[in-house]
């Protein structure tokens, strides 16, 4: 399957959340959805030598690396490292509004420097070979007028060689709002992003922001080539991912008929992690929302979160927590 087809639905890169254990869990529920890493800074890889941040399991594919940075040559070197390790895509972050990211001069602040972004992606594309380089951006920042800024931004990065872009349909306010507030307070402008999809038919544009159900995903796909889901896919992953392969990608079946099946499918991954000296909670913290809205969900969360902190906690904690919910939970 072409990567653009996988990008029909993707799970957003989310700091402290979309690590390799989270991606392993999402992958057991959907074989087709495109998954992203947490953002990794190019400087950490190139200057800091932190190449362990690129570790992932082949079972996670298709998986994309998101990079943060604004130095074209440094981003190119980081892209080359990602390609060497087998990532299916390298994505440039032009959307994160946090103070730390701004001080490093990357993320959403780059919406103000489209020429620099174009130089960055051009160098990344040169380093990537056949691996696609993509961008995730906002509709604008601060006092910019999105109707003017966004089409100009998209045209510049398209002319630099980018063919796939995810647009978070909100402005980012770099001063006065926290990163959390920037995910909720600026109003969503889906219609503007829809107009960009019409204006740039040669681009594969995905829409992101405030999307919480698979029904909403299907609705957006009437206007867009792709949809990216963030927090909803983390807090209630089964609601987004467990039926995605059949409903969104047209597969004949989904890999896990029930949420119980999804939990049990994680047992080999958890056992391998424990055998390697890892802690149970490093994996199960990403599974607390498995039964969101289902009978027994509170007992599942409590048993799993409390049990995972016990010294030497093992797979028995998972089975104990699973006994709190009925096997019919779908």
Numbering strands along the chain, what is their spatial order in the largest sheet? 1-2-3-4-5-6-7-8
Q: If you consult CATH, what is the topology of the largest domain?
A: TIM Barrel
Average pLDDT score: 94
- The value of Rg in angstroms is 20 Å
How many domain regions?
2
Q: Roughly what percent helix? A: 40-55%
Spatial shape: globular
Question: In whole angstroms, how far apart are the ends?
Answer: 27 Å
Secondary-structure arrangement, i.e. CATH architecture of the largest domain = Alpha-Beta Barrel
- Run of helices and strands: HEHEHEHEHHEHEHHEHEHHHHHHHH
CATH superfamily of the largest domain: Aldolase class I
Can you count the beta strands?
A: 8
Family: Belongs to the Dus family. DusA subfamily.
Binding site for FMN: 13-15, 66, 136, 168, 208-210, 230-231
EC number: 1.3.1.91
Site (Interacts with tRNA): 93, 180, 183, 298, 301
Structure report:
The protein contains 18 helices and eight strands. It is α/β, with parallel strands linked by helices and 330 residues long. The protein has two domains: 3-247, TIM Barrel; 259-322, Four Helix Bundle (Hemerythrin (Met), subunit A) (Up-down Bundle), CATH 1.20.120. It has an eight-stranded parallel barrel, surrounded by four helices. Helix 4 (72-84) runs parallel beside helix 6 (114-128). The longest helix is centred in the middle third of the chain and has 15 residues, at 114-128.
């Amino acid at each position: 399957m072409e990567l653009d087809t996988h990008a029909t639905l993707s799970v957003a890169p989310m700091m402290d959340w979309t690590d390799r254990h989270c991606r392993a869990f999402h992958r057991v529920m959907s074989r087709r959805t495109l998954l992203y890493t947490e953002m990794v800074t190019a400087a950490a890889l190139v200057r800091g030598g932190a190449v362990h941040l690129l570790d992932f399991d082949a079972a996670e594919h298709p998986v994309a690396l998101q990079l943060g940075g604004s130095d074209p040559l440094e981003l190119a070197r980081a892209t080359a490292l990602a390609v060497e390790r087998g990532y299916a895509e390298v994505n440039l972050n032009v959307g994160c509004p946090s103070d730390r990211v701004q001080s490093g001069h990357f993320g959403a602040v780059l919406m103000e420097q489209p020429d620099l972004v174009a130089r960055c992606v051009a160098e990344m594309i040169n380093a990537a070979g056949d691996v696609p380089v993509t961008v995730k951006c906002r509709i604008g920042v601060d006092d910019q007028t999105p109707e003017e800024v966004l089409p100009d931004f998209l045209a510049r990065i398209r002319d630099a060689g980018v063919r796939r872009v995810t647009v978070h349909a909100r402005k980012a306010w770099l001063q006065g709002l926290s990163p959390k507030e920037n995910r909720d307070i600026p109003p969503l402008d889906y219609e503007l992003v829809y107009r960009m999809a019409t204006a740039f038919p040669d681009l594969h544009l995905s829409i992101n922001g405030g999307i919480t159900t698979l029904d909403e995903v299907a609705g957006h796909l009437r206007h867009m080539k792709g949809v990216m889901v963030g927090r909803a896919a983390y807090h209630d992953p089964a609601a987004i991912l467990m039926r995605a392969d059949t409903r969104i990608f047209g597969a004949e079946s989904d890999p896990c008929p029930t949420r119980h099946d999804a939990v049990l499918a994680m047992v080999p991954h958890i056992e391998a992690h424990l055998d390697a000296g890892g802690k149970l909670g490093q994996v199960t913290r990403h599974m607390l929302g498995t039964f969101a809205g289902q009978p027994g969900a509170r007992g599942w969360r409590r048993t799993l979160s409390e049990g995972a902190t016990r010294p030497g906690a093992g797979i028995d904690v998972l089975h104990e927590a699973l006994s709190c919910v009925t096997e019919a939970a779908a």
